[in-house]
Specification:
By secondary structure, this protein is an alpha/beta fold. It has a single domain, classed as TIM Barrel (Alpha-Beta Barrel). Helices cover 41% and strands 15% of the residues. It has 11 helices and 8 strands. Strand 3, helix 3 and strand 4 form a beta-alpha-beta unit. The radius of gyration is 17 Å and the shape is globular. Bound molecules: 1,3-dihydroxyacetonephosphate. 1,3-dihydroxyacetonephosphate (13P) binds next to strand 8. It is an enzyme of class 5 (isomerase). Pathway: Carbohydrate biosynthesis; gluconeogenesis; Carbohydrate degradation; glycolysis; D-glyceraldehyde 3-phosphate from glycerone phosphate: step 1/1. One of its GO terms (cellular component) is cytosol.
């Protein structure tokens, strides 16, 4: 079954709207990832969907003002954490911090969705340049990671989200996204002996979802804007059934 992750980012603006929307899209195979402040209330109403967080502290509970530790998420029945979203990277998160967050996530027994993807500037130089960029992003996170992992089994997703496709209405082509997904999977197995599922993200909507999600290489989707409209999101989820 393909995984459809609803990344609400900094939406919606009220608690009531968040609860209403969560109830509307509470389907199996969906991960709802609201802002931190709505996690607890949504956790209480979900019957079918899973819950995710948009970020996590690399630190355990303690004197870390403004941070949310993995075990605090687990207490709210959060199962997934998005790590290294390009909007977090833009806000200043470094590869080193992202590696620490990934380790903290997996060591706590949470499932991780690690985001990678190139800028328009990189893609201008062609698809091979994009692959090289993504490879370097993965290397910077996974080199040396196995020594820090305390757990034997973990569930890891890599979300390929080209930055130029996020919120722009322009997607990558399904062919390129599928090729990138294969490339990532091969790299992860060959270099790190890790088997991962690859999600596509970037302007996915009801009209284009099928062309991506029907590809065997693509294990699901990371959906931003379209996950805030239940009718639109329903059509995306339906393409996987
Ligand atoms: P959009 O679906 O709004 O392009 O956002 C994609 C994204 O960043 C999901 O994490």
């Amino acid at each position: 079954m393909k995984l459809i992750v609803a990344n609400w980012k900094s939406n919606p603006s009220t608690h009531a709207e968040a609860i209403r929307l969560a109830k509307e899209i509470d389907w199996k195979g969906v991960v709802i990832v609201p802002p931190f402040i709505y996690l607890e209330a949504i956790s209480d109403v979900l019957k079918n969907a899973s819950l995710g967080a948009q970020d996590v502290s690399p630190n355990d509970v303690g004197p870390h003002t403004g941070e949310i530790a993995p075990r605090q998420l687990i207490d709210l029945k959060v199962e997934y954490v998005i790590v290294g979203h390009s909007e977090r990277r833009k806000a200043g998160e470094t590869d080193e911090e992202i590696q620490k967050e990934l380790v903290a996530t997996l060591n706590a027994g949470l499932k991780a969705v690690l985001c990678v993807g190139e800028s328009a500037e990189v893609r201008k130089n062609g698809f091979e340049a994009a692959k090289k960029f993504v490879k370097e992003q993965l290397e910077s996170v996974f080199s040396g990671l196995s020594q820090s992992l305390k757990v034997m089994s973990y569930e890891l997703y890599v979300a390929y989200e080209p930055i130029w496709a996020i919120g722009t209405g322009t997607t990558d082509t399904p062919e390129s996204a599928a090729e990138m997904a294969s490339f990532i999977k091969q790299l992860m197995v060959n270099s790190y002996k890790l088997s991962v599922n690859v999600l596509y993200g970037g302007s996915l909507n009801a009209s284009n979802a099928k062309s991506f999600l029907s590809r065997s290489e693509i294990g699901g989707a990371l959906v931003g804007g379209a996950s805030l409209r239940s009718d639109e999101f329903k059509k995306i989820v339906e393409t996987t059934q």
